[in-house]
UniProtKB/TrEMBL annotation:
Domain Metallo-beta-lactamase: 500-684
Origin superkingdom: Bacteria
TM annotation in the entry: 230-250, 256-277, 298-317, 323-345, 357-378, 390-408, 415-434
Main location as per UniProt: membrane
Keywords: Cell membrane, Membrane, Transmembrane, Transmembrane helix
Record protein name field: DNA internalization-related competence protein ComEC/Rec2
GO cellular component terms, semicolon-separated: plasma membrane
Biological process according to GO: establishment of competence for transformation
Length: 740
């Protein structure tokens, strides 16, 4: 039985490895082969193939429910009902629409929308909206999250921006939204949004600082309703009934164990309903049901059996769950605890078990966090030792009881006020700890180093007296990796995927330069959310130069965040006076040259340019005879002056000036530079229409290979190796489709 379930799970988990899904015909043949195998000695192979078929079929259904390519980028009127909890933040409302309909064509069942400056929207309302729809996508950068996979796992078939709308029907249902409004209206020491996150799973009200504090201290799980919350509440109910039975207070005619398991499960389901039964909550409830059933009837099957049964059930219900990081973290944490606490000789006192659980989970989650590219909190074991009981035994019971007693005037509000005070104390303490020990973002490891870390963690978690247990600590040293070896005379170039903006990282053997820092608006700062984390994951712990071509927000917006996050020896800019004084930017000077590790750099600047674009600071990089021109946003006039002042304009690679706008990449400029490839940085369906079709046609006419971040994700070039550009989006994954 276990062997068949294990084989089935392996087949279901193989989904993330498929570069393209098998056709219906192949799935039919595989299913027939699976049935034949089940009737022979190869029956484990049959279960594995059945898992593959079910996972691939389910994924294909999700792909078929995505927005048709013909509607991608189009604006049309649609009708649908708001579901979930709409998030209102900074003048923007984000919400999900289900069963949307339009006269223009069939729409996905689940659509995620944003309305900048939109009105108040409540769950359960029905709206008629003018929406610019897009196929689900996201920025794709080295070692970063793949948002397109996450959209697919959540079965979101389209995203969109609302242009206008009208409410057709008032709220129908929507009790969770009404409860959220009630919670946000109470006085909880300014922590009302945290209460909403803790009780309803609604983290939209938390600030960026709140999330950074939770991430730095490894306590995000405390405010994201997950298996821990469900399990702790159920465990509290179970423990109370078991304690009453032990004291002889529980009625003798009622068998305490079935009642304890039943009421624990009922409380978990009630909390799950309060949280909206999102996928993590469904997973937690299924795991809890399996554990309680095991406790009630099947303890002879061993401790790992309920974990395997829950894993099988979760993947059968939603095979796409394996594309979400939370899936791997939750099951890894539970597996670690079972491995370390079951079947060990001797008894631990409660405080010993609790303290050991924290460092056990910290070590056990290391391989998963590394594989997923997530930050690692070095203070998490110590912080969680106190924060988990603080939330679980004090805050959560008060908050749940206060919510239940809200109909009693003054009673519920008082309990929520007390819970908010406890939360405020916790956040103030976490803030101090976050400043003392920020989260560590390790560099991605090659497979052999990651395998060493896995083996080391397993050895450290093995029972006392196990052979080579001490060797585990030595093997964990594989976490610290040396800097990537870049040959002398070559430069590694990364043009990051920052949407409608520009950020280019240039690294030689011992030096790093950032050309532009990505866009920032009042809604988001990609310098902080994309550029800075990507630099750290690529092993950049300081910058020798940050060069900001000009002061437009799509190039300079993220500079302040990068400046705060990394030591920077020198900041250069085409328009230094237009940048924040805190950057201490120096003016870009034409003719300045330097050499790093055999790679040559030279600047060009036209301070008399009439526009900010024409005053862009232009950087030429040459490595072993191969040349790259980073042109910023310079346009026709600046291109003409640049050609006059450069006696040797020939280049190999061109960063497309002004994102490929019609006012740049002129015919004389293209003839004189004669590059063999162009790198375009822009956002999909951007409002400026970049790159212009005439410019793309000009590139094609001159024989250039076009590399576009909107289509191919972040672009990598080894300058001096005389190779080609690599795009992350060209790495085949079934949810991305064939390379374009």
């Amino acid at each position: 039985m276990r062997t068949g379930m294990f084989a089935l799970v392996l087949g279901l988990l193989s989904l993330g490895l498929w570069p393209a899904l098998p056709s219906v015909g192949w799935l039919f043949l595989l299913s027939l082969l699976a049935l034949l195998c089940l009737r022979s000695r190869a029956w484990p192979l049959g279960w594995l193939l059945l898992g593959v078929c079910w996972a691939c079929w389910s994924a294909q259904q999700a792909l078929d429910d995505r927005l048709a390519s013909g509607l991608d980028g189009r604006t049309l009127w649609l009708e649908g009902r708001v579901v979930g909890l709409p998030a209102h933040s900074g003048g923007t409302v984000r919400f999900d629409l289900e069963d949307a309909q339009s006269r223009r064509g069939a729409l996905p069942r689940h659509v995620q929308l944003s309305w900048f400056g939109g009105p108040t929207i409540r769950a359960g309302e029905r709206w008629r909206l003018a929406v610019t729809l897009r196929q689900p996508s996201g920025l794709l950068n080295p070692h970063g999250a793949d948002r397109e996979a996450m959209f697919l796992a959540r079965r979101i078939g389209a995203t969109g921006t609302v242009k206008a709308g009208e409410r057709l029907e008032p709220v129908r249902g929507g009790w969770r939204d009404r409860l959220r409004q009630r919670l946000l209206a109470v006085d909880a020491h300014g922590r009302e949004s945290v209460l909403a996150a803790l009780l309803l799973g609604d983290g939209s009200g938390l600030t960026r600082t709140d999330w950074q504090t939770l991430q730095a201290t490894g306590t995000v799980h405390l405010l994201v309703i997950s298996g821990q919350h469900i399990g702790l509440l159920a465990g509290l109910i179970y423990g109370v009934i078991a304690g009453l039975a032990r004291l002889g207070v529980w009625p003798g005619r009622w068998p305490w164990l079935p009642w304890a398991c039943g009421l624990a499960m009922a409380s978990a389901l009630g909390y799950g309903a309060l949280a909206g039964f999102q996928v993590p909550v469904q997973r937690a409830c299924l795991m809890l049901a399996t554990v309680l059933l095991w406790r009630l009837r099947f303890r002879h099957l061993g401790a790992f059996f309920p974990l395997l049964l829950a894993l099988t059930g979760v993947l059968l219900l939603e095979p796409l769950a394996s594309l979400l990081p939370g899936f791997w973290l939750s099951f890894t944490a539970v597996a670690t605890l079972i491995y370390c606490f079951s079947g060990r000789l001797g008894r631990w006192r409660p405080w010993q078990a609790w303290s050991r659980a924290q460092w056990v989970i910290a070590i056990g989650l290391l391989p998963a966090l590394l594989a997923l590219g997530l930050p690692i909190s070095l203070s998490a074991p110590l912080v969680n030792l106190l924060a988990v009981p603080w939330i679980s035994l004090a805050v959560l019971p008060l908050a749940l009881l206060g919510t239940a007693l809200l109909p009693l005037t003054g009673v519920g509000e008082s309990l929520l006020w007390a819970a908010g005070g406890l939360i405020d104390i916790m956040f103030r303490t976490l803030g101090l700890l976050a400043e003392w020990q920020p989260a560590w973002l390790p560099r991605p490891l090659p497979l052999w180093r990651w395998s060493l870390v896995c083996a080391g963690a397993l050895l450290l978690l093995s029972p006392r007296g196990a052979p080579l247990k001490g060797l585990g600590a030595v093997m964990l040293l594989a976490l610290w990796t040396p800097r990537d070896h870049i040959p002398h005379g070559q430069a590694e170039i990364w043009q990051l995927d920052v949407g409608q903006g520009l950020a280019v990282l240039l690294r030689t053997r011992h030096h790093s330069l950032l050309y532009d820092a990505g866009p920032a608006t009042r809604f988001s700062d990609l310098g902080e959310s994309v550029v800075l984390p990507t630099l750290r994951k690529l092993g950049v712990d300081q910058l020798n130069v940050m060069l900001i071509s000009h002061a437009h927000a799509d190039h300079a917006g993220g500079a302040a965040a990068v400046y705060r996050g990394l030591p920077i020896a020198r900041v250069l800019a085409g328009e230094p006076l237009a940048l924040p004084a805190s950057l201490q930017a120096q003016a870009c000077a034409s003719g300045e040259r330097w050499e790093w590790d055999g790679v040559h750099f030279s600047l060009w600047h036209w301070p008399q340019g009439k526009s900010s674009n024409d005053r862009s600071c232009v950087l030429m990089v040459e490595a072993q005879g191969e040349r790259l021109l980073l042109a910023g946003d310079m346009e026709t006039a600046a291109e003409r002056v640049w050609l006059k002042e450069n006696v040797s304009p020939r280049i190999d690679w061109l960063q497309s000036p002004h994102h490929g706008s019609r006012s740049s990449s002129t015919e004389p400029f293209m003839r004189a530079t004669a590059p063999r490839g162009v790198l375009i940085s822009r956002g999909r369906h951007n409002m400026f229409g970049h790159p212009h079709p005439q410019v793309i046609e000009r590139y094609r006419r001159h024989g250039l290979t076009v590399h576009d971040t909107a289509l191919h994700g972040a672009l990598r070039l080894s300058l001096g190796a005389h190779g080609d550009v690599e795009g992350l989006g060209l790495q085949r994954r079934f949810w991305r489709g064939p390379p374009s």
